[in-house]
Amino acid sequence: MSYSEVGSAIKSDFTGSRQLNNIFWALTVSLGGFGFFLTGLASFLKINELSFLPQGIVLLFYGTVGSLLGIFIGLTVWWNVGSGYNEYNRDLQRIKLYRKGYPGKNRELILTFSFTEVKSIKMRIKEGINPKRQLLLCLTDNREIPLTGIDQQVALNKIENDAIKIAKYLNVFLETE
Fold first, then answer.
1. Over 70: is that where the pLDDT of 9 sits?
2. Domain-ending residue, one of 57, 79, 101
3. pLDDT reading at 109 higher than 90
């Protein structure tokens, strides 16, 4: 997440699912699934020494599922699901959260909030085997809107600096959990 100042607003951009690790897994799962599918098909056509029942059927099933999963991951990367931005505009006294989803009627998620609706910025930090570091926008009606993704591994000092910057800009309290 990177912040940029645009006039009297600050904006943070998100990369979404278009990342190298997702491309790697899409290719790996697709190729592995295709290999399983071809091996199962070869057992059906009696090209190899595997018996079709039960090994060939299982290989066909796993190959089909693997190929479909790889295609799904690839399409998620292609559509860049999860990408978007947060914009905090002091002139308009508005916060705009924009995210891309899957194609369809609700592909774009746009949430807008007034500065007066904001109670605080909360840092949710869990350390351990699976650490989670997340910023939340706490509203006066007790809703908590995520400002960062939970899967993004961000350095602790960076998320603290981001939280301080947003809280100062919005002139609200900073909470920790």
1. yes
2. 79
3. yes
Candidates 136, 154, 135; CA nearest to 144 is 136
Return the bridge partners of 14, or none. 84
Q: Indicate the SS3 state at residue 127.
A: coil
Tell me the H-state helices in the chain: 20-44, 57-79, 156-170
Which structural domain range is residue 140 located in? Answer: 2-16+84-176
The reply to whether 95 and 147 lie within a common domain is: yes
Confidence of residue 150 (pLDDT cuts 50, 70, 90): low
Question: pTM of the prediction?
Answer: 0.86
Residues 132 and 54 grouped into a single domain: no
Residues 38 and 66 in one domain: yes
Say yes or no: 112 and 169 in one domain. yes
Total structural domains in the chain?
A: 2
| Alpha carbon distance 28, 34 (integer Å) | 10
**Whole-angstrom distance, CA of residue 44 vs CA of residue 47:** 8
Euclidean distance between CA atoms 86 and 95, whole angstroms = 7
DSSP state for residue 80 in the 8-state scheme: T
Could you identify the residue written with the tokens 């995210």? 99
